[in-house]
Design a protein that fits this description.
Elements lengths: L2 H11 L4 H8 L3 H8 L7 H11 L3 H6 L7 H8 L4 H4 L18 E4 L4 H7 L3 H5 L3 E2 L10 E5 L13 E6 L11 E6 L3 E10 H4 L1 E5 L8 E4 L3 E11 L10 H21 L5
Parallel strand pairs: 1-3
Antiparallel strand pairs: 1-2, 3-4, 4-9, 5-6, 5-9, 6-7, 7-8
């Protein structure tokens, strides 16, 4: 049983003293101290209070050594993604960490995408990917960076590096937001999502470049989802033409066309 060590870990992650937590749960501080020091064991009523306060199932509090989890896994657990609570299957993510147990950001270059489609769940394959860190991103979330290929998401340039945050629960995909999605048939795609999972079990995926048609992906064909965070590019996107300038350009083209018609004798 890991209840005493888990209790101390969770209390400290909340920034609470024993006095603070005891007061919040309506118990005496020495009682709480006895639980943490493993000289006393809580009854079912007390366990239910701890479970409700930390939003973690009693089974998890007792059976799982939370100190072995990464910061990202603890963050997911504390935000309600506990298999014993929500009934969902936990999607196992192959990941790498530093010697200090901090999450790396793995880099998936264009040449590695084919291998990633088959090896995304293989810890050995993931461990061979290059890694880096960005100090302005949260240490409690999991990120991965993929190299963009093609012009479907213009004005984001081809060969940009797109970073995403791992999405555990696909019901939380927000329509209108951009996601990197690993699919069974399409491979890795970077698109704007329209979420119809609850109604139809589908995502409709759109490109920023409107010459590309939207398409549907069933949840059974999805393997991973990463919410777009930012991109890095060596290119400056093409400028968006101001409306007034666009009108002047169109008017100039019309004048040029009229002049051309006059020269070739097509003027009415």
């Amino acid at each position: 049983m890991y209840f005493n060590t888990n209790l101390k870990l969770l209390r400290k992650r909340r920034g609470k003293t024993q006095e603070d937590l005891a007061a919040a749960l309506g118990m005496k501080r020495p009682t709480l101290g006895g639980y943490e020091n493993n000289v006393a064991r809580p009854g079912i009523d007390e366990l239910m209070k701890f479970s409700a306060y930390f939003r973690i199932a009693i089974d998890t509090l007792i059976k799982v050594d939370l100190s072995k989890l990464t910061g990202n896994q603890l963050y997911q657990l504390e935000n309600g993604q506990d298999v014993f609570i929500n009934g969902n299957s936990i999607r196992i993510l192959a990941t790498t960490v530093t010697a200090e147990n901090k999450e790396n950001i793995e880099l998936v270059p264009e040449k590695a995408k084919a291998g990633y489609t088959n090896g995304f769940s293989d810890p050995e394959y993931i461990s061979e990917l290059p890694v880096f860190h960005l100090p302005f991103l949260s240490e409690n979330k999991k990120y991965r960076t993929f190299q963009l290929n093609g012009d479907s998401m213009l004005p984001i340039p081809d060969k940009s590096w797109v970073t995403g945050e791992f999405v555990q629960d696909w019901n939380n995909i927000l329509s209108g937001d951009a996601y990197i999605i690993l699919t069974l048939n399409e491979g890795i795609v970077f698109k704007i999502a329209d979420n119809h999972i609850r109604e139809d079990g589908l995502l409709t995926l759109y490109s920023l470049n409107t010459i590309y048609e939207p398409f549907h992906v069933h949840v059974h064909d999805i393997r991973e989802v990463w919410k777009f965070v930012h991109y890095i590019s060596a290119e400056i996107p093409d400028p968006v033409m101001p409306k007034d300038e666009l009108f002047r350009t169109v008017a100039g083209l019309k004048q040029d066309m009229e002049a051309l018609k006059t020269r070739v004798g097509l003027k009415d």
